[in-house]
Amino acid sequence: MSNEAKLLISALSTKQISQWDDYVKQHPNGSFFHLCGWKNVIEKSFSHPCYYLVATQENSIVGLLPLVEVKSRLFGHALVSTPFCVYGGAIADSDSIVRQLEQYACDLAEELQVDYLELRYKTKQESPLLLKRAHSTFGVELAEGEEKILASVKKKQRAVIRHSLKNELKGDFNTDVETFYHLLSQSYRNLGTPIFSKQYFSNLMEEFGEDADILVVRDNEDKPSTAVLNFYFNEQVLPYYGGGNEASRFIKSADYMYYQVMCHAQKKGYRWFDFGRSKDESGPYKYKKNWGMEPKPLYYYFHLVKATELPNLSPNNPKYKLFIQLWQKLPLAVSQFVGPFLSKYLG
Q1: Domain with CATH 3.40.630.30 in the chain
Q2: pLDDT by residue (tens digit) across 311-327?
Q3: Secondary structure of 84-95 in the HEC alphabet?
């Protein structure tokens, strides 16, 4: 292909959907969160407008950028790649095309008069946009076999997993959204975080089919203890949404759960365990480091339109402290009812 071929940037068309996903899967910076299925899930679950941009040369895709507009009186107005996801941003055949997609996104952000544009890159970019570094991601290559996987875990955490294996826990991989949602709701409420709607998780399971499953861990009385919704992409497994009841920490159910995800994925031929992002130096960040995984910084870039400073929707923001304390005291059923009205804007 000639480098002189004209670059066209346009909205994704229906006939380009399979080409889009093929491009994501073969691109070294493509992620599960770039897949077009997220557009369907977000539109169906939250009704947010999606702007999926495709760069083409001579009718071939040479770059793409998924964008979603999220507008709320409480939490602001943003154009994000991609909300509800830890990775995003433009991927393309060259840095030049990435920058052109970014410029197109900036122009769109100006046109929509959002507060800001946010692009969530996994790797550092040579970009003129404003950089914010607040999160890191964790991952590890999966060893071959359960014993080698266990041996790859840091000694202190390995002892915790061995302890969990003696607690007569049982894990079952399934599509049980109902049990998963009940456990996740408890975790979210206890953290003071609004829960998503149950329909959102049903939509994820339906959209991604065999590329998603749920692990439910039960205690020695066969009662659900913890659960996690996992995504599978290329050679990676991503345990993405996980939670449990208050009793789970005493029996080390979560530790057992993530170990089972690692073993299950390795048996299925997956080679990389993506433990997701955590805010730097937070409790989850330290927990993941205890597994022996080294944090890798995430690079989130911003273009401010109406906003005068970088956004801070973190739970650590002092202005949310009272809200979190009140939310933690809500009855579970109330948090499940009210949560989805707020969480759809907290992507």
Answers
A1: 7-133+298-311, 137-297
A2: 887 777 777 788 889 99
A3: CCCCCCCEECCH
